[in-house]
Amino acid sequence: MDKRPFYCYLDSFDELTIIIPIKNYQDNLEYFLVGNEEIIKLKITQKINLGVEIKLIANFDAYIDLSKVYFVENTKKQMAELYTGKIVRTELFDNIYNYKKHDLGFTYTQEGTKFKIWSPVAKYVKLELVDKLGDIKYYDLENKIAGVWRAFIDGDLEGYKYRYLVYVNGKEQSVLDPYAKASDANSEYNFVVDLMKTYQMQYKPDFSGNPLDAIIYETSVRDFTSDENIAFKNKKKYLGFIEENIKTPNGFSAGIDYLVELGITHVQLMPIFDFEGIDELNPDSQYNWGYNPSQYFIPEGSYSTNPNDAYSRINELKMMIDQLHKRNISVVMDVVYNHVYDAVNFSMEKLVPGYPYHVDRNGINTNVSGCSNDLATHRKMLRKLIIESTHFWASEYKVDGFRFDLMGLIDYETMNELMLELHDLNPQIIVYGEGWNMYSSNLSDRMAHMGSKKVMPTIGFFNDKFRETIKGSTFNPKEPGYTTGNTNNLETVKEMILGSAKNRYLFKYSAQSINYVECHDNLTFFDKCLYMTENMESIYRQQLLATSMVILSQGVPFIHSGQEFYRTKSLDENSYISGDEINKVDWSLREKHFDEINFVKELIKIRKNFNCFKLKAASDLEAKTDIVSLNSGSLLVHYNDTCNLLLVFKPTSIEETIIIPEEYQLLLASEELESKDGSEYCLKEIGTYIFRKGDEANV
The domain at 623-693 falls in which architecture? Predict the structure, then answer.
């Protein structure tokens, strides 16, 4: 039990707060700041009665060294150690302790290893080093510039385990290195590794760097290979993802071979950095999507064949990415820099309590993310962590893009600086995220959906307006969208087809619009439809139309794994811990919906081969497109440039006849069509129909 007579916190470089239980308070006592061989009288400037406590605001005129232990003492000789309080959230603190070098963590050579860790408020830091035989030694670190503690240990430490003991705010705690590159299972220790000895990647995908050339396919390492009916040797692992010649029971391709056949350009992997919520030594006992960040530079151990081996998880992830690159598939990493899983035990919080998070007026962590904490990404050393983390994944693991979870909670300056750093490393990297307008007066620097005007135009945003318009309401499953029967908002549908950029509807450029109708979150399209109809044939047609609109609209198409073969999660709209049976990619559906998959393949080919689907500027959209709506709600989209394509999106089963110019021929249709005289077509079913000017009848 804490038996201190009062509590004291440093709020700035010349002010502190004393909290005194009212039973201990005496009005005539004086208070002094004691430490670093000084005794400084405190000037009480404010007294506030909190009911059960008295709060005193005190000023002092002295330099204070944050690496030294200080006490507040009263004239009764009662004393309490001075803890750091609001000072860590001041602009002056951020500026003084802004460490600009790029060498935090460990720097390994065979001759010796340098260790550096940032904690301006620590009173001492010790390195706990465990050799390969399990023997433990402790080394004191020296406090250097900008709050960085440093030690150099002679000898070849490769394979040694380490962590830190840090004394902050009255207690010593063990702390993992926030810049560590390797870990044992379940994050007990970090490892010193020689990255030059890890798997050396060989391949680079052929991608232009233009986001409009991307076709993104979201999946999970675990879900992709967890189907018990498919013979993956390394189920739910990095290595399973890249196994070749995997077949369904009836001989259809599955796994990585299927992705190659489908024709997508990018795989977006749900979190692959080290996360909590899974016992890495017994991963089948639990399930978690992985949005529980733990160690931002280290691959997740549950996807490794040997999570306790310092090199296995590194090598296996590198091999997975390299083999995807070999097949010309780029890799996007789903990153979570808006919150952490365990706010108390997050390394940065242990090192500098109160620094990593946004707080309200009462000093309580905000909860805009819904995870009981929101990272204060505008603070310089949090920004540094985020930028250096993404840079590391891009340079060491050759990651080709980043999808930011709740990007709306990350400030503009961080995103812009990060984008510049990444493009300096690799101009082909793409960056996008969830830019929702998540209002909070405490997050004044946050990004919002309309913040697309304030960040670099190469940063993309998930277009939830597209989703709601084309699919229907996410939060009211019975409310339809355009493809599920609502034809009342055709002007908005037209704007979505044009990438939400015509007349700058949402975005300045269509490349900022990530178009989608389903992702890992919320109901799948198929499951939403089950709330509205029991007609399976209608659901299939509606979903194929929606997928067509995702692929053929201006902007960047985004496909949820299994969307093309009607993935279901049994009406589970938040399956983050629901287990493999709910979350698995069910490859039997790949067999059942062979024809629809082939249609999606053809759509992808058309998207790739015709530049009219990649119009960036609003001026091009105005000059080169024309959209006409019919009374039935069908839309005719005409690209009147060199592509000379005419698309028909038909959302109802109302029979209608359309007249196509004689010089146009049918290129692709979701149902068989015949013309009466070469130009008149009768459309009966929900679907997508594509015509092309000229004699070519195929792509």
Answer: Sandwich (2.60)
